[in-house]
Records
---
Amino acid sequence: MTNTRDWNATAYGRTAAPIEAWGQKLMDRLELRGDETVLDAGCGTGRVTEELVARVPRGRVIGVDGSPSMIEQARERLGERADLLVSDLLALELAEPVDVVFSSATFHWIGDHDRLFAGLFGALRPGGLLLAQCGGAGNIAGVRDALAVAMADEPYAPHLAGWTGPWNFAAPDETVTRLERAGFVDAQAGLHDEPVRPGDPHEFLATVILGSHLDRLPADLRDPFVDRVLAELEPPVTVEYVRLTMSARTPTAS
């Protein structure tokens, strides 16, 4: 399973400030000389990518996203300062290996982490760094409980029944095992909580969380479905994010 649907990039830009802030904070863990080639795996609208560009003034940034509208906005923001392309990360092909793979809020949309990590391992030079964060075990538990109720209701059930959803919220231990299986060394992973209280819960859920669900519904049922999910959540709505942060390196050349 992967998720390369086209997102509403404009709405995402209005609602995703907390998620982009996590990406900025994660980037502070990068120790860069300034001449590296960095892959931003799941670059979205390019806001975090823009900071990566600033941190490698003598290097190069490649931004990849599966959503054409996200890449379009990233191009408007970054112009020629980064190489941007639309691609499924599971099918990514780069002309040359990179020094760093950076990713924030993307990997949980990809079901096959073994295949993902194997591909990213192949994209890195010897001694290269992977630093990433995504939703982890226990992520958005309250919203998922509300979803289970809403998905079983008419008139939504015929469109959503039997679907397990678009996410892969992995645990740290299985993530380390998968990274090592792909060939990485010095693999580490951990969880931490990042609760978010969105200013506009309807737009936030519709844009950031429920897009894959809404794609499966007729247009006239989409807003009512979001409202049905919200009806199961206690106000003020708090989304209980659990972030999985991982880091690993490729072995240095012998």
Note: The mean pLDDT is 94.
---
Amino acid sequence: MSRADEKKRIVVIGAGQAAAQLAISLRQGGHVGEILVIGDEPHLPYQRPPLSKKFLSERPQPETLFLRPESFWRDLRVDMVLGVPVGTVNLRNQIVSLTDGCEFAYDELVFATGTRASALPLPGATLENVFSLRAIADVHRLRPALDAAERIVIVGGGYIGLEVAAVLRSEGQAATVVEAEDRVLKRVTAPAVSEFFDTLHRERGVDIRLGARLAAITGDTLATGVALADGKSLAADVVLLATGARANDELAQAAGLACNDGVVVDEFTRSSISGIYAVGDCSRLPSRRYRRWLRLESVQNAIEQAKAAAAVLLGEPAAYDPVPWFWSDQYDIKLQIAGLSAGHTHCDVVGEPTAARFSAEYRSDGRLIAVDAVNDARAHMLARRRIAQETEMTDAVALEGAA
């Protein structure tokens, strides 16, 4: 990297895990120029996975989630502008404008804007006592409502929905999970894993309604229940929507970057416009390993892709094509996922689900592409290495679908 490059001002839009890692990696790599991180939340960069787990159940102060204290960022010479969203990005003049009128020039720009809860286009979705769970502020709104509620309906039987159900039952509160598919976790796991978690929750008193499509959330000002497509209804004091997330890419799209439920980047985190990059949950990246475009929502991807972006900005580019991994804590059970099982043609269950220690191994064309490990950390770590070896692409391959 030239001395001129070292002094460039790098502006990061977004103040989550990816933004934090990017700033750290830039300094560790020798960047001496200004680093400015802009976040629309009033908090320093923090961990999000505990929001539906310990942070929801233990009610600690927000500072317990912070990745680093304020002094760390000050010593690292990373400037933080928090609590004000970015309104526009002027590519011609290379200026980021905040909604309060403040403007910041940049030499290179990184989008790390994350995701938000998917909106449900249904009657009643904006009523009071209807919540989503993506930020500290969401927990601060949701927790008092949960404490006062007797009937809680969770819409969505994915990771977040089941994690919140586990918290509620551990506290002795009733919980009903409404899932449109015919099994929980259907989009991400095999039937054996779904069956295990379905049984786990039912045995602990969760009322799980499968194949139950939501027609409306009922009530005038406050939500009083949910109406299902089959004509049945469920009373509710609180409704939690846990139906997935979508990328915060509107700002990038308005600036002229190519987007498709995420800012489209190449294997070096570069967007469609020179000098602009995207990392973390908001980016859509090419995977030769999985032969398709991916948008990954995980701590692992946020950290590793941020490191890859820092390397590019430091003049040391290396292609990024990860084996993703994820985890979910429910009661005393830890589910660890390595790889991506979508498109698998065969699945083997290793171990005994009734012993609460087993794995599901997914293959496609003979290649191991993913492993779900239940209470088996060793199997998870071995799986990450095995998948990396078996999915490595020695030749370029065409990617399925559009970016």
Note: The longest helix spans residues 299-313.
---
Amino acid sequence: MEGVAELTLSRYSIGVDLGGTNLRIAAYRRDSTDGSGIVESVGLPTRVSAGPDAVADDMSRAILPLLAKLGRGEEFAGLGVGTPGPLELPEGVLRNPPNLTGFDGYNLREAIAARVGVPVAIESDANLAALAEFHLGSGKTYAASSLCMLTLGTGVGNGIIIDGKVWDGNNGMGGEAGHNTIYADGEPCPCGSRGCLELYASATGVQRMAKQAFALRHGDAEPPTFTAREVAELATAGDADAAGVYARVGTALGIGLGGLVNTLNLPLYVIGGGTSAAWDLFAPRMMEELRMRSYVYRLTAPSEEESRSRSPRKTHVVRAELGSDAGILGACLLPFVDL
């Protein structure tokens, strides 16, 4: 594909996927025995309450044994780190990340480099999920030159790939569609705004809406602690309130996608993250809302035949292919890609 960054994957890299709940570190080589590229990985809880230095310490204690085992010579391509945003680049400073309380102003790149003694490449976790999906997932399947990805997890991340490269914006903070306003008078968001997409399409949003639905039906009774997966299971089993929650997810996503499609006019929009497992519950409403909200989508929506042939002149909205590995794979790819 002309203009698309090429990968050089003969060497190995180490990737870090920093989440608000979990921390994952992996060594990556394309010729790994299981075909995924990941040759070794470590998973840890993210000790957010212990502070950013404690989390950086945890990372280094996982990274250093991998470096010792695999070496720091010519084969080592580098260390890539994905983190929740907003993230100021090129400095690598976190700016009030809603899902990492206490990390505002923390120079994550500098902290990790000082502990492990190798150069660190850093990007937002959603950008890296989009990067992996572009090179190894749906971007490859559709032979797309560009894509926009929403990741539905603890929050809603957003990564944009333009002509094969991550679009960071002016300060590294491009791609924050999770904090675009969907409902002007909606729920207050930790980012300081109200009615953000994240509040209605993330796993935490699903939990909150399920509790609200329970309260409407049962009054002052103590609501159960629902997970997003449990709400999806209830909806699949025919529970009307749970189904209504995922209909709201679809409506919010459709409104959010409508703005993105009208603004970007890209060939491919990808929905990933843990909550995307409930695709069949929210996608019909999402597509209905998208068609109503976006005249660009109405003009470029693919027919069934164009969907099957993956026409590059149409606007395709699909579920991500890489699942929960997208973030860590993107972090591992980062040192190989000329951004």
Note: The mean pLDDT is 91.
